[in-house]
Design goal:
Layout lengths: L19 H27 L8 H27 L9 H11 L2 H15 L5 E7 L4 E7 L10 E7 L6 H4 L3 H10 L3 H11 L18 E2 L1 H9 L5 E4 L3 H6 L7 E3 L5 H4 L9 E4 L5 H12 L4 E4 L6
Parallel strand pairs: 4-8, 5-6, 5-7, 7-8
Antiparallel strand pairs: 1-2, 1-3
Bound molecules: fe (ii) ion.
The site of fe (ii) ion has 7 residues, from α1.
Length: 306
């Protein structure tokens, strides 16, 4: 694979308090150099003779490839984060920040705080969206090769010295302030809109129990809180409950192997929730048997552990 240089997105001469010389040096000497090294390493990996090279040297090349690939991705995002006036966060993004950080101000304090914490060292500060959790999060990455798996960065602040030393010397906080004054919020907003379209990981599915409905711990908690009558049956195997004496509030333990003995004590007019240790096999099987016998039974996902 041959990686292509992305054009410099921001117009260096339009930035407020960050010189064109700094941006151009950063783009050519750091981003450009990383891209060239990435291409060289990819070629080296492609041409590797596996019969004549050690696994250690392959691992080293793959580590370098990851750091360089991530460096190019983050630098492209960094340059694409600049070019605005940093002032107004668009409404959709502002309400997402209020939801996930408390307010735009709190987001800003956290983001800038992380950056100041990195001053004198190096790394990245990223605002990322995590599809699994449906939320934004600020992330510190102390190297090019660290980021949250599955998260989608939408704003990047480069805290390597090369990103500010030419203009600001050791005064990293002046650089951070200048960065904040140049954020292109409308571009960040478009990236956020793209990020939230990414589907979360598909739910884990137990194919053999696909037709048995489940209920979450939170839903059960709500039922208990609202005073809904519900029969909660802990069906952890006997050998397991002997070890773990704690039992969920509101639940009664019943031996899953002796279902015939206790099924008659259950009411058909009230819902039944069953669970085992992790909410897999036994809890599902019990719920399935109870449903066949005409009970409104569901298994609690995550089980006793959840
Ligand atoms: Fe950089």
């Amino acid at each position: 694979m041959r990686y292509q240089l992305a054009p410099l997105y921001c117009r260096p001469w339009t930035l407020n308090g960050i010189s064109p010389r700094l941006i151009e040096s950063h783009y050519e000497n750091n981003y450009g150099a990383a891209l060239n090294r990435l291409n060289a390493i990819s070629q080296e990996i492609e041409q590797l003779d596996f019969s004549d090279s050690s696994d250690q040297s392959l691992a080293r090349l793959k580590r370098d490839e990851m750091a360089l690939l991530n460096s190019t991705l983050l630098h492209e995002l960094y340059f694409a984060s600049l070019g605005g006036d940093g002032r107004v966060v668009p409404d959709t993004l502002a309400s997402a920040m209020a939801r996930d950080f408390g307010s735009v101000d709190r987001w800003r304090q956290e983001f800038v705080g992380i950056a100041n914490g990195l001053a004198g060292g190096s790394g990245w500060v990223l605002l990322s969206y995590v599809p699994r959790d449906g939320r934004l999060i600020n992330q510190l990455a102390s190297g090019h090769d660290q980021s949250i798996a599955g998260a989608i960065p939408v704003l990047a602040l480069d805290m390597y010295e090369h990103a500010y030393h030419l203009d600001f010397g050791a005064n990293a906080s002046a650089y951070i302030a200048a960065f904040m004054r140049n954020i292109d919020w409308s571009a960040v907003m478009l990236r956020y809109e793209d990020a939230i379209k990414v589907a979360p990981p598909r739910p884990l599915e137990q194919k053999q129990f696909a037709d048995v409905p489940s209920i979450s711990v939170e839903e059960v908690r709500q039922m208990l809180k609202s005073g809904t009558s519900v029969q909660i049956i802990d069906t952890r195997p006997k050998h397991y409950t002997a070890k773990a004496q704690d039992i969920m509030e509101g639940a009664v333990w019943r031996d899953p192997e002796r279902l015939d003995d206790w099924i008659g004590t259950l009411s058909k007019t009230e819902p039944v929730v069953t669970f085992c240790v992790y909410g897999f096999h036994i809890g599902c099987e019990t719920a399935s048997t109870l449903r066949k016998a005409g009970f409104d039974a569901r298994y609690m996902s995550g089980g006793h552990f959840a």
